[in-house]
Amino acid sequence: MGVTLLVPDAAANITPDASDAGLRHVLHALPGVDQVGAEARAAMLASRSIKNEAKRTAIDLAISMVDLTTLEGADTPGKVQAMCAKALHPDPADDLVPPVAAVCVYGDMAGIARAVVGDRLHVAAVATAFPSGRAALEVKLADTAAAIERGADEIDMVIDRGAFLTGDYGTVFEQIAKVKQACGDAHLKVILETGELRTLDNVRRASWLAMAAGADFIKTSTGKISPAATMPVTLVMLEAVRDWHQRTGRRIGVKPAGGIRTAKDAIRYLVMVQEVAGPEWLTPDLFRFGASSLLNDLLLQRQRMATGNYSGPDYVSHD
Known about the structure:
Layout: H1 20-27, H2 35-46, H3 52-64, E1 66-69, H4 77-88, E2 102-106, H5 110-117, E3 122-127, H6 137-149, E4 154-158, H7 161-165, H8 169-183, E5 187-191, H9 200-213, E6 217-219, H10 231-248, E7 253-255, H11 263-277, E8 289-291, H12 294-307
Helix pairs in contact: 2-10, 3-11, 3-12, 4-5, 6-8, 8-9, 9-10, 10-11
C-alpha cells in the first residue's frame, strides 16, 4: 500500500497525491474491519481483571490522563476557574493525587484557563466550528488562531463528517493540514465524531486520513452526540496508531471522549491500550480521556482503596 503518497511527515504540503482520487486509492486499500471480531475482542479485553496494587497504579495513571472538560453554552469564567483549580489539585486532602493532563474549554475561555493553570497543565480549546465542523476554512483557521492567542497549547478540531461521508477526502485532508499549520507549536487533536461515521471501516479510514494530514492525536467524539466513545471504536483507532507507527516511525495519540464515567471503564480502556497499541502509549502524551465526571469516580475509588470505605457524596466537588 502506497502510504508514502500521504506525506506523513510534511502535513502542510498539499500535494497532488492528496486529491480525492489519491486519498481514496490509499484509504480504500486499507484492510476491512471485522466488526464482529472487533466487538468480541473489545468485550474480551473489558473482562480482564487486574490485582489491587495494579488497580491503584492504573487509577493514578488514569487521573493523569484526564482532559477535564466543560463545553457548555452556559460556561462562565467562575466555572472554568473552579474546574482549573480542581484539575491542578484533584484531591486537596491528598497531595499524592496527580494533576490531570489538561483542561478543555471553548476557545474564548482559553485565557481564563491559562491564567489559573499557568504552565503546569495543557490548555486544550475546541475550535473549527465545534461541534458541527461546518464552516468555511477561513473561519476554522481564525477560530484556531484566536484560541492559541488566548493561551491554548492544544487544539481539538472536528472534521466535516458530511465531506468525509460523501468521499470528499481532499477537503477533509486539506482542512486538517491547514489547521495543523495554523497550530504552530500547539498540538492538534482531530475529532472524528465516530458516532456519525456509520461503520468501523470508516473509523479506520478517517483515522488514517487524520494522521496523514498531520494530527498529533485522533479523538473519538465531541461528546455532543450518542454514541460517543465505545471500546470497539477505540480498538480500531488504537490499531490504526499502532500500524501507523510501524509504517512511519511516528507515534500518534488517541483520545476517547464522551460516556466514560467510571474508574472501572477507564481501567478497561487502559488494558486495551496496553494490549493493542502497547505500553509506550500508556502516557498522557499519547492517551487521554475526554471527560467531565470521570475524575470524580476515580477519586472516590482511589479513596476507597486507601481507607477501605466509600466516602460520602461531598468528598468530591461537582461542577
